[in-house]
Amino acid sequence: MGRARLLLFVFSLATLAAGACNCDEDPLTPAVPGTCEPTFDCPDGFQYRRGECRPGRCQIDSDCCPGQSCNAAAGFCADQFISCTTDEDCTEVPGQTCVDFREGTFCGYPNRGNALTENGTQICQSNADCDNGRSCFGDRCVIFAPCEGGCPDGQVCDVDSNTCFTLDTCTEMCGTGQMLVLKDPDTQSGPACCLVECECAVLPPVLPGQFGWYASLQPVREGLAVASFDPGYGDLVVTRFDSEGRRTTIEYVDGFPLDGPVVANPEGPRGGRDQAGPVVGEHASMAVDAGGVLHVAYYDRDEGRLKYATDSGGLWKTSIVDEDGNSGLYTSIAIGPDGNPHISYLMAEGTVTPDPMPRSALKYASARTQSPATPGDWSIQIVDSKLIPPMVCDGGCAGGTACIDLGMGPSCIPAITGCAGCMSGEACVDVGGTPTCEETVTVLPIDDLIEGTGLFSSLAFTSTGTALIAFYDRVDGDLKLATSNTAGAFSVLTLEGNDMMEPTDVGQHVSLAVGPADLVGLAYFDATKDDLVYRQLGANALREVVDNGVTPPDLRLVGADASLIFDASGNPAVAYQDPTNTDLLYARRMGNPGIWSTEVLRGAPPAGQEKGLASGFYASQKRVDSKAFIANVDVSFDPEGNLLLDLLIVVKEIF
């Protein structure tokens, strides 16, 4: 062999030894992608799906990825995500809005701040990543459970497309209140999906209803708590807020069914059930004891009884207080000097021994223990009562007659002809043989107030342990005050009204408060003059008009849902509603002599607009140091006319 040929042979061997070929690779075996390598370049006729290269043409949906369906005629996998330009394009799936999604805009679930992952989706890891009203489920901020609450056996829910996908490899059996979902929707859904894995996810909680009616606020260690009624579900609800007034949790306490299908998180509100239960929670009133335990009194409409709830021990427990008559309206609960809960409330109809006639009554229940659990743990007494007046004209007159008062009380009198022409609200009747136009008497009251005594009861204790109950006597239109003695018996005094020569109607929406040095004050509505009134008892007794409703050129009704507190210096402050403009108002008395000033806290139209919020419903306030916290309900309606309530906290500095 020549020298040149020998050198060439040696060079060739050296080149091979240096790695010109890899002896560990089999050039006849095609490369295999990883289980999550969506950018892998599959051979012609194949596409990367579910962690491997699969035939590009599909025949059935399970040949595709979750979130896709097979167009068998054309042989391709089509995405089931709905493209959109506005939220109005996304009404088909509850809770979806038009969001940025995988380099486009599609109907999906927005997270807080619309933050995108590297895959272009709006992921969540906990409820903290979601806006109020949404919960983190399947890595998405949903309102309702997707896939109509669950998929058939052998299928998994793709949350993004709200569709069920057949997958034989997902064999997990989910428990009550759970649903099978994709373990990682970012990579296991849509085109070029990775190997699909499943997991059981706890369903989102039952969507809260429209709570806020009969709001009653109390400060607690961690912030604030408000007891209220949800008219949609018919439940008693306790909502918690932090010290800045931001909502943190919603607890459904009573009114939900204890059995039936679980359609949501069983550890969440209503035990995961959305069916109707008993209607309870109206006329709620809440107190907090020295240990931070909450106590709530409320009305059970279905059974016509007074109920009580407490969260002692960290769990809500409910019990019956009084089943005698139709009892439990207009409750007011307070913690007495004995540390036990005490409740004043209205019996709308019942009997008072020994009288068999139907009566209304202001009643007072005193617990014998700090945590009463049965009716036997309460002692109950009648504070004030009245015979239920007969209905005007027996509730309505027959055809051809009219309800007229000719000086002997309203009665149904035959209507006749012969009058020259009567005005609206008048009827032609025979008066001494002469056809005369007489004013008709309204048969039913224009409001929904009960004809009885004990309405709007407001209970408080002095530092010496005296119980005070302010209340409204609807029959006589009087404001009254009940005061306990050392034996626990009550005496009743009419504070305002009781004038046969000049009848008045005063005392609705009364709120009683005890301030520094046992200063006792009351705020209430004078329906005779449409005024909000403040009355102070004791040595420096006074009666002042807080708001007369006159702000030229407007005349307003003012004083509904009055809630009175005192600041640290003993100056009164009242939160209340202006029902005419549906505003939340605030009035303070400052200086010596005191001068009342008022302001709109919520509801006024923004600058440049004619219409504001409908606010001020069920105002309830408490003071913590130099801040007043006012629970307030805003009311609106959705496009279908359904009632929408927004319970919120307004914070007011009161130095």
List keywords for this structure.
655 residues; disordered N terminus; mainly beta; 4-stranded antiparallel beta sheet
Structure write-up:
The protein starts with a helix and ends with a strand. A hairpin with a 5-residue loop joins β44 and β45. Among the domains are: 141 residues, no CATH class; 48 residues, no CATH class; 143 residues, no CATH class. Helix content is 3%, strand content 46%. Strands 13-14-15-16 form a 4-stranded antiparallel beta sheet, with no helix packed on it. It has a 4-stranded antiparallel beta sheet with strand order 17-18-19-20, with no helix packed on it. A 4-stranded antiparallel beta sheet has the order 21-22-23-24, with no helix packed on it. With 655 residues, it is mostly beta strands. The chain has 2 helices and 45 strands. The N terminus is likely disordered.
Uncertain runs are: 1-23
Order of adjacent strands in the largest pleated sheet = 13-14-15-16
How much strand content do the residues show? over 45%
* Continuous helix count: 2
Radius of gyration: 35 Å
Number of separate strands:
45
Proportion of residues in helical segments:
under 10%
How many strands, what sense, and barrel or not for the largest sheet?
4 strands, antiparallel
- pLDDT averaged residue by residue: 91
Query: Which class of secondary structure composition applies to the elements?
Result: mainly beta
Q: What oligomeric state do these chains adopt?
A: single chain
Taken from the alpha-carbon principal axes, the silhouette is elongated
Termini gap = 111 Å
